[in-house]
Amino acid sequence: MRLYTHMSSTTLSSSAADTALDETNDDQFNVVLRIRPLNGLELNRKDTFTVDLPGEGHVAIETNGSSRNFTFNAVFEPDASQEELFDNCGITRLVDMALSGYACTALAFGQTGSGKTHTMTGPPSQPSTPVFNGEFQEGKSPDLDMIGLIQRSFKYLFQQMKDVGESKVVRASYLEIYNEQVIDLLNPAHKRYLSVRWSKNKGFYVENLFTIECNSMDDLSAVLEEGELKCCIFK
Ligand SMILES: Nc1ncnc2c1ncn2[C@@H]1O[C@H](COP(=O)(O)OP(=O)(O)OP(=O)(O)O)[C@@H](O)[C@H]1O
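Structure tokens predicted for Kinesin motor domain-containing protein (235 residues):
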């Protein structure tokens, strides 16, 4: 895998790239592009890539004989692994910043089938709660390599708190915005749609959103699993 970043004039290997976004970049926003491999349908149709990767975060897309250029903080090629993405996309910096008291958001954006779920939580067959005992337990799940950014961030978060030795309170909530309605996925008994409010002290917040205190990676993973389950039911 190669990572192209405009933070550095060099094309970085995955092993050398992990600090590129973190240490040289103080942007408030990082936009990272992941290009997924062609799927079975596309291969059967004999689709080909129309994306050219000249390096340094640039992407050129060929359409109707002309080329349009875009620039990102980093670009991941189709063969990038879940681990490479986690190590190099800058999300560890977000967790570090959250631990320093900043409000941080990781947002996956793309058309249907572009790989948002795959990137954030891993493919659907992937258990969202890998057995965790300081380390993910290799061998308990055949797809452990496929776990996504969310579970890897959980592990990183608790590891960082342990390393720094500071006691922090971790609270989790899980909501879905569907047809512009806010649904609490941890409290489905709460049938009503929730309201988004604003106050001077809190800024924007979701009123009556169920929040759970999580003392361990397992607690946090259970929240993810519960929310994913309800998410499917609501759909
Ligand atoms: N980087 C990747 N490597 C291999 N397969 C991928 C990759 N990204 C996505 N896929 C596969 O492509 C399919 C669609 O991906 P996914 O469900 O993550 O898309 P999505 O953006 O979440 O779609 P939707 O918005 O419809 O929920 C899945 O089968 C997924 O496993």
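Residues 1-22 have pLDDT under 50 and may be disordered.
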